[in-house]
Amino acid sequence: MDVLEVYASKIENTIRRFKWDKLQRLYGSIHNSIIGFISTEWITLSEKNSVLDGAPNIEDDDGKKYADLLLCEEDKPFIVVEVESSVSKYREKIDTIFRYLNNKEFEGPVFGMMVMSNVNETQHGMNCRHHWDQIKAIVTQEGKPIVLVSIEKDKAKLDKSPLSRLRKRNKYYPWNIVNIEYWIHTPNQTKEGKLLDISKKEYTSTGGIGNE
């Protein structure tokens, strides 16, 4: 097993320890909330972990690029993170991760993570739920070590309660998270599984469920 496969197994174990089910109580675009969630879960795992909220910029021919987070382990960066809910920006965000992984100024990071918050409807002519298959193809072609996390939402059946009435006032609020799955890529292998599925009633002690 090469070093990237060791890292892939470590990252799989790590994200499966995150308490993803808590996200079900967040309503809206939840971009900033997901960033806060990942930061908090990462720091909680170990006293040796730290986070740079707003990763230091990198600069190339296209100008400066900023990732959302840089997850650090002891005194080194480990995972560069992008969180995105707009399908039209997926390619841009994955390219930013590539640039961080290729940048020589960092002693690391060794892995990238892109978290995609999808709604199960058509936007810009694309079914958001399945759009991440195109990102998988891009990652596979590039050959970089990256974990993709897909958060899927379905329209909620809201009632006449005060909270439901408030949720009806904004197009982002009426959506509930129904599924979270991951896909981890290294040049020699891929791993995948589920982190949350509301059709399943039995959760592991780590907050996830077993692979299908």
Provide the gyration radius in Å: 17 Å
Percentage of residues in helical conformation: 25-40%
Give unreliable regions as ranges. Answer: 201-212
Shape annotation: globular
**Strand tally:** 11
How do the SSEs run, as a string of H and E?
A: HHEEEEEHEEEHEHEE
The strand line-up of the biggest sheet is: 1-4-5-6-9-10-11
Task: Give the oligomeric state.
Answer: single chain
Total DSSP helices: 5
For the residues shown, what is the average pLDDT? 84
Largest sheet at a glance? 7 strands, mixed
- Secondary-structure-derived class: alpha+beta
Distance between the termini: 24 Å
Q: Number of domains in the coordinates? A: 1
Q: Strand share of the residues?
A: 25-35%
Task: Summarize it.
By secondary structure, this protein is of the alpha+beta class.
Task: Describe this structure as you would to a colleague.
With 212 residues, the protein is an alpha+beta fold. It has one domain. The protein contains five helices and eleven strands. The protein has a seven-stranded mixed β-sheet, sandwiched between helices.
